[in-house]
Structure formats: structure tokens, C-alpha cells
Amino acid sequence: MIRFDASGATGFLPSGALDAATARIDAAVRQVRTGTGAGPEWLGWRRILATPDDALLNRLDELATRIRQDCDVFVVAGIGGSYLGARAVIEALGPFFGGKGPEIVYAGHHMSGRYLNELVRHLEGKRVWLNVISKSGTTLETALAFRVLRAFMEKTYGAEAKNRILCTTSASGGALNRVIDATGYTKFVLPDDVGGRFSVLTPVGLLPIAVAGIDIRSLFYGAVEAYRMYEAEPAPVAAYAATRLALYEAGYRVDVLASFEPELKAFGGWMQQLFGESEGKDGKGLYPAVHAYSTDLHSLGQMVQDGERNIIETFLTVAEPGGTLTIGTDADDFDGLNWLAGRTLQEVNAAAYAGTRQAHSDGRVPVLDIGIARLDAPTLGALIYYFELATALYGYGLGVNPFDQPGVEAYKKAMFRLMGKP
Ligand code: PA5
């Protein structure tokens, strides 16, 4: 289902580097399986696939169907792992690309007052549902947005607001649970053993994804199938993690996550957080940078081609992107493009990928290729698990705990100090 090709990278590695990295990743596979690595209490992203909860999938699906019948705008309020996974799947498969759900808008992922004002204006007169998502229940960005949006919902719907506000949080603790206890808002639980950036296949991601009209059962079971496949044979993920680790050890410091399919840009955003928060610690880690091609070839392409040679590039490719668009013949040919008449845009895009890969490789950028056949729910589910497992293996291979994020606290402490928090 997922094809990994390291042939564009191995030539850049010193001899023996890949074998050494492979030995460490093999050990990491054992640590993940036996729960003997750092943070074993955070391996729930595997548990949920080992024992699928069909009743939960049904409950989410039924609620989403009901919401879609009475919803113009569905607001997802969350930050980091509490919204990036949903956004990744929705932007790849949702309303713009054939999904049948309402407009999905995001809030609680920054502190812009102008944005929230405009959002509230945008919601006026529309049928709105609100899903606030916060594992800790105390994250400032999300809590502030929830305060504003809750006030809007209560002003607009009165007592009925309670039926249109959905909360996803930990089983207990945190301010959000206090609000739920006091108001009776519908609650979904993010299990304690699943960290935020590994939570897209829990209600955190699945509820908004279902509302967007995407088949969550196909998505989830695509991940289950990948889980079972890599339990039987982890080599396709281990090889990716080992090559990436060997490149890091060889001195590369930036991992450009690139795709020629614009609908995968938000998926790149999810990967960026997954990689960045998991490995960027103890002075280590590859900096993940999302490039949407060919758009970014006209901005960042120069840097990849000719800038400092510490960059690797990971291409995410789709063999059958779908939606054939054939270039027509123009009688005047003022734009001089008749030489392309009869060819499809997909062919042009594929040539752009092949040409870019060649040029960047010639410019001494090691290239990794991760290919999928098509962009659909089961494949995206499999891809999610592929990258989650790769992150855990790579983190253990690197010698860090891939499941914590102690560094994120630093800005919060400084901000609260500046604001005079009691
Ligand atoms: O991966 C993580 O744990 C983080 O990115 C969190 O998801 C993010 O900080 C939001 O936290 P919370 O869900 O507690 O509001």
C-alpha cells in the first residue's frame, strides 16, 4: 500500500552508516513492541488499532450524520495535535475534494483577536456546531477561543446551545472537564495513553473528519490494516526510519517534506508537528519543513537547489491522483502551449516531480520517496500509522523520548510571567 524508496539517498551516506542505523532501528522495533522504550505509557496509538472500538466509530458516525443535516459551519477549536490531524484528512478528502459535509473552520490555534472577531461575524445567521478539543483542557489558545465561541453559541441558541457544543478531552482533570460537568455538554474522551500528536484516529480527529463527510471506518481500518501488516513485517517502516537516522548522523539537519499534490499540504503540517515535537529535543533532530510543489519551487526551490547542503527531501507521491484534465488546443496559440495539447495536467505534474527530484539530487540533496497509489480514506489511514510508527522508531533510534514535549512549556512560562498570571 505504501512504497518506500531510499535509492535517491543511500549514495550520500558514508559506508557502514545505514547498517549502524538499521541496527538501532531494529532495537527500536523491539522497544516499541515490548513497551521497553522511553514513555511506554504513551503507546495507546497502537492499542487503539490492535483492539478497534467499533461502537465508538458507530457513535461518531451517527452523530456526524445528524450534525450534517443541521449544520452550515462546523467549528473545530484546538491547537497542535488537537486539530492538525483532522485538518490533514479533511483538506485531503473533505468538502473541496468531493466530501459532502458542511464548511469546516478552525479556531483556538492562535491568539488573534481579529480572527476571532471575523469568525464570529462569519458564523452569524448560519447553523453552527462547535467542537472544542483539548487533552489538557487548559491550553490558553483553545480556552480563550472557547470562551468567545461559547458566548456566541449561548447568545445565539440560548438553552439549545448545549446540544450543539461537543467537547473532546481527557477522561478527567482540566478546566474543560469542569465546564462539561457544569453544563452537560456532550463529551468525547481522548484516552490517557494517546498523546496529542498521535490522536488523529481517536475522537479528536475522527469526529470532525466524520462531520466533513469522510468515511471514518475506511480511514480507521486502513490504519488497522497497516498496523497488522507492519506487526507481521516492519521492514518498510524500519527502512525509512533507518535511512532518515543515517542521514541525520551523516550531518543533514533539514528534512523537506514535499508533495506535488496541493491537498497534501495540511498532511505535511500534521507530519511536521509529529516529527518536530517528537524528535526535536536534547539538541537533536531533523528540522521538518513542509514544501507544497510546484508552488514552493518558486520560493524555496532556490534554497533546496543551491543553499546550504544540509537538506534532505522526502517526496510524498500519489501514483493515480485522479481527476484527469486534458490540455486543449487553442486556435491562436498566443501562449505557445499547443505543444502540450492532448497531454494531461497530471502528466505535466508527474514530469515536474521527476524533473525536480533529478535536479535536487544533482544539487546534492539526498531524496527519499514515499509513494501511495491513490488518495483515499484507507490509504490516508495507513499513511497516518506509517508515519506514527516511523516517528516512534526514529525517536528511539535517536535516543530521545518521542512522546513528550517538555520544550513547549518554555514560551508559556515566559508569556504568563509577562502577563502577570497569579
Ligand atoms: O502533541 C501534543 O501533545 C501537543 O501538540 C498538543 O496536542 C497541543 O499542545 C494541544 O494540547 P491540548 O490538547 O492539551 O490543548
Separation, N- and C-terminal Cα atoms: 53 Å
Helix percentage? 40-55%
C-alpha geometry: globular
Strand content: 5-15%
How many H/I helical runs?
A: 15
User: SSE order in H/E notation?
Assistant: EHHHEHEHEHEHEHHHEHEHEHEHH
Strand order of the largest sheet: 1-10-9-7-8
Radius of gyration: 22 Å
Could you report the average pLDDT, rounded to the nearest whole number? Answer: 96
Coarse structural class = alpha/beta
Structural domain tally: 2
- The CATH superfamily of the largest domain turns out to be Glucose-6-phosphate isomerase like protein, domain 1
**Overall CATH class of the largest domain:** Alpha Beta
Low-pLDDT segments, ≥5 res? none
